[in-house]
């Protein structure tokens, strides 16, 4: 009797052992083939593909957050709670002052109130969840909750990009065509621009979120971030993410590049117009009007470009966390301060509003 051992390949890179037992000679005795049970030797990619066929395997994700140190969590909780409180009070207060003051019923302040509303929504998507993570040992978020958070993040981020570009165009019309300002920037046009901003935000949000979650998630569920951002979520996919990363880069650039061009062209014309002004007082007033908007633009677009518009978004997670905190939590707090502290009209309206409220006994 001879025992022969061999390994037969299967598809997907698997193989199993086969033992063959031959009794006697083939000419005059029976031949028996004994096949041993399959012993898997599959490659990792094959097993991941097999698991990835069920896209609902992952039911929740674990967010690592900003830190795992208990003493740091207590400090960070106090800091971010203060930031969130200032964000809500500042933006809600700015909306109330613009609504109550007739002198601020202009296209510029209408757009500013829309920006404040976006900042409130954007901050509320991230900060409450982050505050809970500092106090709770459970760092998980459901699969559906992760989808919703990513969709809202993309919606508000896209909306803010577009709204900042619209505000730059508003400044261009106000400075370069002051006599036609109220004709061009009518209330109807401003309302339509805000509606279009949200419509485009919903469209881009649907594409970006769908691009991320159409991929299979079959095992790893730990997200190295404090919210469901697109790049760290894509790293958990069980299939190749090259196409998904290209789509992410494409749509991020599709929003940021045109809006940046609108801003640059608008401010180029503004600069030329200001330089042609003969009055130094008029030049100073024009520069002062644009300074707040330029500050907000630099803060927002600078951080967004560094996080999303890069060839390989999977390389610097810790660095991206800091930048993400800046544009998702800190900037919504800074915007009302930037637009009001250097604006005499807003400061005067705040004083009048406070006086009226004090007379009514509200404050």
UniProtKB/TrEMBL annotation:
<comment type="function">
    <text>Putative odorant or sperm cell receptor.</text>
</comment>
<feature type="transmembrane region" description="Helical">
    <location>
        <begin position="322"/>
        <end position="341"/>
    </location>
</feature>
<feature type="transmembrane region" description="Helical">
    <location>
        <begin position="75"/>
        <end position="95"/>
    </location>
</feature>
<keyword id="KW-0716">Sensory transduction</keyword>
<dbReference type="GO" id="GO:0005886">
    <property type="term" value="C:plasma membrane"/>
</dbReference>
<dbReference type="Pfam" id="PF13853">
    <property type="entry name" value="7tm_4"/>
</dbReference>
<feature type="transmembrane region" description="Helical">
    <location>
        <begin position="286"/>
        <end position="310"/>
    </location>
</feature>
<keyword id="KW-0812">Transmembrane</keyword>
<feature type="transmembrane region" description="Helical">
    <location>
        <begin position="246"/>
        <end position="274"/>
    </location>
</feature>
<feature type="transmembrane region" description="Helical">
    <location>
        <begin position="147"/>
        <end position="169"/>
    </location>
</feature>
<keyword id="KW-0675">Receptor</keyword>
<feature type="transmembrane region" description="Helical">
    <location>
        <begin position="107"/>
        <end position="127"/>
    </location>
</feature>
<keyword id="KW-0552">Olfaction</keyword>
<keyword id="KW-1003">Cell membrane</keyword>
<dbReference type="GO" id="GO:0004930">
    <property type="term" value="F:G protein-coupled receptor activity"/>
</dbReference>
<dbReference type="InterPro" id="IPR000276">
    <property type="entry name" value="GPCR_Rhodpsn"/>
</dbReference>
<keyword id="KW-0472">Membrane</keyword>
<comment type="similarity">
    <text>Belongs to the G-protein coupled receptor 1 family.</text>
</comment>
<feature type="transmembrane region" description="Helical">
    <location>
        <begin position="189"/>
        <end position="207"/>
    </location>
</feature>
<keyword id="KW-0807">Transducer</keyword>
<dbReference type="InterPro" id="IPR000725">
    <property type="entry name" value="Olfact_rcpt"/>
</dbReference>
<feature type="domain" description="G-protein coupled receptors family 1 profile">
    <location>
        <begin position="90"/>
        <end position="339"/>
    </location>
</feature>
<keyword id="KW-1133">Transmembrane helix</keyword>
<protein>
    <recommendedName>
        <fullName>Olfactory receptor</fullName>
    </recommendedName>
</protein>
<keyword id="KW-0297">G-protein coupled receptor</keyword>
<dbReference type="InterPro" id="IPR017452">
    <property type="entry name" value="GPCR_Rhodpsn_7TM"/>
</dbReference>
<dbReference type="GO" id="GO:0004984">
    <property type="term" value="F:olfactory receptor activity"/>
</dbReference>
